[in-house]
């Protein structure tokens, strides 16, 4: 974008802001930031003078520390990033790692808990199905045994009933057990 006097003023103000923020006792003014050798490619160097002694420059290590501490604010003021706004001799700051809104351990815990619950539900449902199947088979066997059909067979041309072995058959010719003895 176009670098003009307004942009220079903003840069000086941001550096003065960084210096004031770095050392709370400092009273650095915009006039204490001097830009030198400004080119069309927006390349320049700058110095910061001491406000109490307008001639003395602030040590480079103090300026570097102030800019490093407030680099994000300077980048934001110019809508730039560490890749587009470079300060020579000042290493770019790494952006903090992205923190997920939900902790990783909570996600893993939820997945494991869901698997355990799904396994328990599966075991319960399969047990109920096996129990129903077993009951159904046993009732079918009982029904089959009860449904032994009485078939009619013909002997000498007369119909005869086949004995039901399970229920037994009472022969009417012989007296019942309670009538074994005749009364006197």
Automatic annotation (TrEMBL):
Membrane topology: Single-pass type I membrane protein
Entry superkingdom: Eukaryota
Compartments, as annotated in UniProt: Cell membrane
This protein's UniProt keywords: Cell membrane, Glycoprotein, Membrane, Phosphoprotein, Signal, Transmembrane, Transmembrane helix
A single GO cellular-component term on record: plasma membrane
GO BP terms: positive regulation of amino acid transport
Coiled coil stretches, renumbered: none
Principal location listed in the UniProt entry: membrane
Residue ranges constituting the Collectrin-like domain according to the UniProt record: 1-184
Keyword Lipid metabolism listed: no
Parts of the chain that traverse the membrane: 104-128
Keyword Ligase in annotation: no
Protein name: TMM27 protein
Provenance organism: Onychorhynchus coronatus
């Amino acid at each position: 974008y176009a670098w003009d006097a307004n942009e220079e003023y903003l840069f000086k103000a941001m550096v003065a802001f960084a210096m004031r923020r770095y050392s709370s006792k400092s009273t650095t003014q915009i006039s204490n930031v001097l830009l030198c050798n400004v080119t069309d490619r927006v390349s320049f160097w700058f110095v910061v003078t001491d406000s109490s002694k307008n001639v003395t420059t602030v040590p480079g290590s103090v300026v570097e520390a102030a800019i490093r501490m407030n680099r994000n604010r300077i980048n934001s003021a110019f809508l730039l990033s560490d890749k587009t706004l470079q300060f020579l001799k000042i290493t770019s700051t790494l952006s903090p790692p992205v923190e997920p809104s939900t902790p990783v351990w909570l996600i893993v815990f939820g997945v494991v808990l869901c698997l355990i619950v799904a396994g328990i539900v599966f075991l319960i449902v399969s047990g109920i199905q096996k129990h129903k199947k077993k009951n159904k088979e046993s009732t079918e066997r009982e029904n089959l045994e009860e449904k032994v059909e009485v078939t009619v067979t013909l002997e000498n041309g007369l119909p005869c009933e086949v004995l039901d072995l399970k229920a037994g058959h009472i022969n009417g010719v012989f007296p019942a057990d309670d009538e074994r003895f005749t009364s006197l």
